[in-house]
From TrEMBL:
Keywords: Cell membrane, Cell shape, Membrane, Peptidoglycan synthesis, Transmembrane, Transmembrane helix. This is Virulence factor MviN. It holds the Pfam family MurJ. The chain crosses the membrane at residues 20-37, 57-76, 88-115, 127-146, 167-185, 197-218, 239-258, 278-300, 321-344, 356-377, 389-412, 418-440, 461-482, 494-518. It comes from Microbacterium flavum.
Length: 536
């Protein structure tokens, strides 16, 4: 347990630092191209979505879910798994090069799919950005492959710290853009070839360099890797069977994402796709720091237990990881919701834009805790090498999310919903679909393991939810005392940071106090994790 705590602290600290620098990167990017009501920013966002969507397919599904258990098994080979990993990395690189080439050839079609209602000028700008950004797919994929091999060999730190390199390079590059050209350039006519090249090239260079950084830590894996095109014996048929269902799950998720994009891009010029991306970025900050760091380390142990037949440890493992994630998740939900307007002011040029983004952010926050729990459960299925069942509950969630987006746009067309709230409605539909997905996943998990160990988990989550209520009320009260929407916390980006820290800090203090009054044993675990992360 102590080793898991240290590993989680290393990952959490690295993720926190990379996310903080990522926020700075986003602030500089907003200074370059804007966010709320910026058609140019929407064009850039759609182009940037193309490589990241495929990366999510690889990182969340095929690589994390399937390859890690295979590498854990290969460690028992006489060479420690070196030949297996050599074949795996060679195959993965070949596939990634081919996929990147195909996507670049289809760039105009892909942009049209995600934003069919755009005028030719906006679509042309997005396509131009796409040609500079799509090579990121190759580097994202190799980064995920190398990173998960490091994780499987219990070298946890580099994978979580490496994105900081990307952020620093982007900050410098975007800063150079501002020094040369100024900004923000929010109109489509503002953009020419040099501006597009500098912005897009900087973004892709950062992703490439974060991949190169991982190579400096490869010796720690004690694996001797070389190109190996003899893929016979790697278990492609077995991996293919597992990957097929994961691929289908991601396909339905991507289809739902396309429906959401097609709906939300209709509001370009108001709260549209860029606003949703920044709201999602804020949502993912606590999720990445807490849920991903904890679930990554627990997943390695879970895969080892399943491989060794120690099935009696599966339930307690899931219980520990879900509690550790949820005790933070409820606190961050209350704090970020209370401070949503000051926080979003950081990514917009006006209080009006901050309020519009805050609605979207709060809609996403409703699902912060179940989203983290689902990460744990999904990896539980992957540890049993079951990718078919996650497809079932992922299909249900994606269908409901897409249906919710369609209902939202119909409501706009009928005049029942203002166009400015379309993005928030789409985000809300996605969050609500998660509450259907979670109980379904829990029920299906019973096919593999005894879930009675999770009964105490749900009682613990009830305590956290109870403590979150006064925490949000306290934070919202502080926000109102500071002037609310018309106060100083929304008058400037940097004052938004200060205001968000005050409001969010008040919420977290009350949350910790409420947990103490409820005598929640998880409070001591949470404070221990915080101390380890800060120490790292």
């Amino acid at each position: 347990m102590a080793s898991l705590g240290r590993a989680s602290a290393i990952i959490g600290a690295g993720t926190m630092f990379s996310r903080v620098t990522g926020l700075i990167r986003s602030i500089v990017l907003v200074a370059v191209i804007g966010s709320y009501s910026s058609r140019a920013a929407d064009a850039f966002t759609v182009a940037a979505t193309l490589p990241t969507n495929v990366y999510e397919l690889l990182a969340a599904g095929v690589i994390t879910g399937i390859i890690v258990p295979q590498i854990v098994k290969a460690a028992a080979h006489t060479d420690g798994g070196s030949r297996y990993v050599s074949k795996l990395l060679t195959l993965g690189t070949v596939v990634l090069i081919a996929a990147t080439a195909v996507m670049m050839a289809l760039a105009p079609v892909l942009v049209w799919i995600y934003a069919p209602d755009w005028e030719p000028e906006q679509r042309a700008l997005s396509i131009a950005f796409a040609y500079w950004l799509l090579p990121q797919l190759l580097f994202y994929g190799i980064f995920a492959l190398l990173g998960e091999v490091l994780n499987a060999r219990k070298v946890f730190g580099p994978y979580s710290w490496a994105p900081t390199v990307n952020n620093l390079i982007s900050i410098v590059g975007f800063g150079a853009f501002l020094a040369v050209f100024g900004g923000p350039f929010t109109e489509l006519s503002d953009w020419d070839a040099p501006k597009i090249a500098l912005l897009g090239g900087t973004a892709t260079l950062g992703i490439a360099m974060q991949t190169v950084v991982l190579l400096f830590f490869w010796k720690r894996t004690k694996l001797h890797v070389r190109p190996d095109f003899r893929w016979r014996g790697i278990g492609l048929r077995h991996i293919g069977t597992l990957a097929w269902w994961t691929f289908l799950a991601v396909v339905v998720g991507q289809l739902a994402g396309i429906v959401q994009s097609q709906v939300v891009t209709r509001a370009s010029g108001e709260a549209s796709v860029t606003v949703m991306v920044y709201a999602w970025l804020i949502f993912m900050l606590p999720h990445s720091i807490v849920a991903m760091s904890i679930s990554t380390t627990y997943f390695t142990r879970l895969a080892e237990d399943v491989a060794a037949g120690r099935l009696d440890r599966v339930g307690p493992n899931l219980d520990e990881s879900i509690r550790a994630i949820a005790v933070f998740g409820f606190g961050f939900t209350a704090a970020i919701a209370a401070a949503s307007v000051p926080i979003t002011r950081v990514f917009t040029a006006s209080a009006e834009g901050a309020v519009a983004m805050a609605w979207v952010l709060c809609a996403y926050l409703l699902a912060l805790v179940p989203f983290g729990v689902l990460v744990v459960l999904r990896r539980g299925f992957f540890a049993f090498q079951d990718t078919r069942t996650p497809f079932i509950f992922s299909f249900v969630q994606a269908t409901l999310a897409a249906l919710g987006a369609v209902i939202a746009v119909v409501a706009v067309n009928l005049g029942a919903l203002p166009l400015g709230f379309l993005a928030a409605a789409v985000a809300l539909a996605q969050s609500l679909s998660t509450y259907v997905q979670l109980p379904l996943a829990l029920r299906l998990l019973r096919r593999h393991t005894d879930t009675r160990a999770l009964h105490a988990t749900w009682r613990a989550l009830g305590r956290f939810a109870l403590a979150a209520v006064p925490a949000f009320a306290a934070g919202w009260g502080v926000f109102l005392l500071l002037g609310g929407v018309d106060g100083w916390t929304t008058s400037d980006r940097f004052l938004g940071i200060a205001g968000g820290a005050l409001v969010g800090g008040a919420s977290l203090l009350v949350y910790a106090g409420a947990l103490a009054l409820l005598r929640a044993p998880e409070l001591s675990i949470a404070t221990g994790v915080v101390r380890r992360v800060l120490g790292r």
